[in-house]
Amino acid sequence: MDNYFNLYYFCLYIRGESILNKRYLLYGYGITNQAVKKFFDLHHIAYIIYLDDEKDGLPFEKIFWQIDYVIKCPGIKFDTPFLKRCYELNIKVISDLELLYLLYKEYEYIIITGSNGKTTTSYLTYQMLDSSNLFQHGLGGNIGVPLFSLLLDQRVHRGIVIEASSFMLHNTYECKPKIYVLTNLIPHHLDYHKNVEDYYFDKTKIIGNLDKSDYLIYNYDDEIVSSYVSKFHVPFKISFSYHHHLATCYIKEQSIYYQGNQILTLEEINNPQIPVIYDMMVAIIIAKIYHIPHQQIQKVLQDFKGLDYRFQTIYEDNHLVIINDSKATSPEASFYALKSIHENYPSFYKTVILGGKMVDDNYDHINDQINQIDEVYLYGSSRFILLNKIHHNKVFYFDTLEEVVDQIAIQPNHLILFSPSCVSYDQFSSYIQRGKKFNELIGKFIKK
Questions:
Q1: Beta strands 255-258 and 261-265, pairing class
Q2: Domain ranges of the chain
């Protein structure tokens, strides 16, 4: 008798949702499915773990008839032979986000997605809600906290703020958040998605699940976002904009306004860079939806100092600005950083540092921004590839980040942006280690 599943014990009701006779396979064993496994173990749910490895003891074809749901780790590509066979056999392949929704439909989900800026937006939104004792212990997803890890100690209250990547959204079908936030769209992860249209589809398809009790929050300034949003009939569409007063939340006379009412001035913000202001506008809108008092909103925004290595201003005076954006692991992320410094520091001499190990080679859309930079430094294993991608007449390239910093000569009114646009794994274990190293090296320019 096959012992992969013991159906006599496979019965569980979670908050009214029956999962009787559902048979699961965890495809991949990264931190996402490790958390799902712990949840299944806690509730005595049977499962198979399949690693897509020749050494895996489970026979490839034998297991298909035993599966109702495949829970796919987000990092696995969409077109593996195993997944193709699942689709041929009409086996449901879902993400942990979809599974979470199927099991806990009564939770309120705030899903935040976009091509860039999701982490800071998610964190700040959660801080805003938590300040009023809402959504306690409810922040997870692509931010680094697996969704099912939030359920292990049963401390989640009311709902969850979820940073969602396109990998998570790809295998969602019924998932319906109370609030869906679309920060921006730019071609990204085309090594996973077949084309840019498929990428945009995965980012926007959940909008079609929203009903009259839900909210769609979107970036009015992003033409691609606005175009996609216009295709959906959602009663509550709420926009935010840095440039247009037609939006619900906008900038006017160096202040953030919501529905015509001033929230706070930009001078009251610790780091009034454009990406941060966009993040704050989203948090303000969500705070208003949940009726958080005006003074509480102001306090959270005034206290927010940003997240480490995410367009973080580590030094600023009248003549020198240094920004550490080590978290920028793709050209898309660097695009927004470059755009921001052009708008915030038009008169400064600008140096940008790019480099590391290239994963995404789509640099076409950032060259217009690069052309407004005064000098570009490249380093790392992909420096020669970057040299062919970057169109600029003043480019220097070196092996290590240390060599780059050693070569920089401070100019009057100088801005230095470290926004690598590549992953860190050629010389560092993570973007965090890389960011720490940059702070250590650049410290020689900072007045004590």
A1: antiparallel
A2: 7-94, 102-303, 312-443
